[in-house]
Amino acid sequence: MLVLDPVLVIPAIFAVALGGTLKGATGAGAPVVAVPVLAALFDVQFAVTVFVVPNLLTNIWQAWSHRESLLPWQFVGLFAGGGAIGAIVGTYLLAGLPSETLSAVMAFFVLGYVAFRLVNRSWVLAYPFALKISGPVGLIGGALQGATGISAPVSITFLNALKLPRATFIATISVFFSAMSVTQLERMIALGLMTQERFIAGLVATATILAVMPLGTFLAKSIPPKAFDYLLLGLLTIIALKILFQVFVA
User: Fold this and answer.
1) pTM for the whole structure
2) Which residues contact 85 (CB under 8 A, 6 or more apart)?
C-alpha cells in the first residue's frame, strides 16, 4: 500500500503536523501547507481526498466551539452555500483532469496567494460589499477546494480582508470548510475517489492535526505574527516551485 511506505509517510506526517500547527495558531490554513506536500509525495487526487476527512472533522469542532462569534447568518449562508456547491464542481474536476494539470493549477494558485498577501497586506474590504459577493466568492473557493484541496487564495484572503476578530474569523471559515467538506466527501464516495486506505489516512491526519493544534496556539502567543506569516509564505513558495519543477522539468 502506497500510504504505508515509511519513506513517504514520515514527511507526510510532518507536513500534516505543520499544517495543524498553523491551524492552531490562526484557526485555518492546514490544507495550504499539507496538501501541496502530500501532492508532491503522492499525487493531487490522493492529497485532496485524504484531507477532506480532517477538514470536515476539525472544522465542525471549531465551528461549534466558536459558534457565538459567527458573522450574521445571511453572510455565512451565502458564503458556505456557495462553497458547498463549488466543491461539487471541483470534485468532478479532480476526478476527470490529469494529475499534472491539477498539480500545476494548485502550484500557480499557491504562488498567487503568496504574491497577493505580500502586495496587499493592508487591503480592507467593506462588509456591505463583501456580503454582496460572498456567494460567488464562496462558489469559486469551493471549486478550488474540490479540485486542488486549497481554497485559501480565495476564501482566507476574502475573510482576512474584512479584518475580523480572531474568534469571528475562525467560526466563519470553519462553517465554510465544513459545508464544502460535506458535499466534497459525498461526491468522492460516489465517484470512487474515497477508498478505505484514503479514509484511514484521513483519520490519521485528523489525529495528527488535533494533537499539534495546542502547539500552534502556544506559538501564536510566542512568535510575532508578522514573522510567522513570512515564514509560512516562504515555505509555501518553496513547495509550489518544487511542484512546478516536478510537472514541467523532472
Assistant:
1) 0.84
2) 139, 142, 183
Interatomic CA distance for residues 147 and 106, integer angstroms: 9
Residue 58 grid coordinates? 476539525
Produce one character per residue of 217-226: b if its CB has 16 or more CB atoms within 10 Å, e if not: beebeeeeee
Q: Residue written as cell 460535506?
A: 182
Question: Nearest CA to 38 among 24, 18, 21?
Answer: 18
How many whole angstroms separate alpha carbon 239 and alpha carbon 93?
Answer: 22
Rounded to whole angstroms, what are the CA distances from 196 to 202, 204, 248? 10, 12, 32
The per-residue pLDDT string of the chain (250 residues; one tens digit each, 9 = 90 and over) reads 444 567 778 899 999 998 899 888 877 778 888 998 898 888 889 999 999 999 999 999 989 988 899 999 999 999 999 999 999 999 999 998 887 888 888 888 888 878 887 887 666 789 999 999 999 999 999 998 999 888 887 888 788 788 888 889 889 999 999 999 999 999 999 999 999 999 999 999 999 999 999 998 888 777 776 776 677 678 778 878 887 887 888 6
Cα distance between residue 217 and residue 24, in whole Å:
5
Is 44:37 a contact under the CB 8 Å cutoff? Answer: no
Q: How far is CA 26 from the centre of its chain?
A: 12
- The 10 Å Cβ neighbour count of residue 161 is 16
Dihedral pair phi/psi, residue 206, rounded to 5°: -60, -45
User: Cell digits for 127?
Assistant: 462588509
The candidate with the shortest Cα–Cα distance to 62, out of 232, 210, 195, is 210
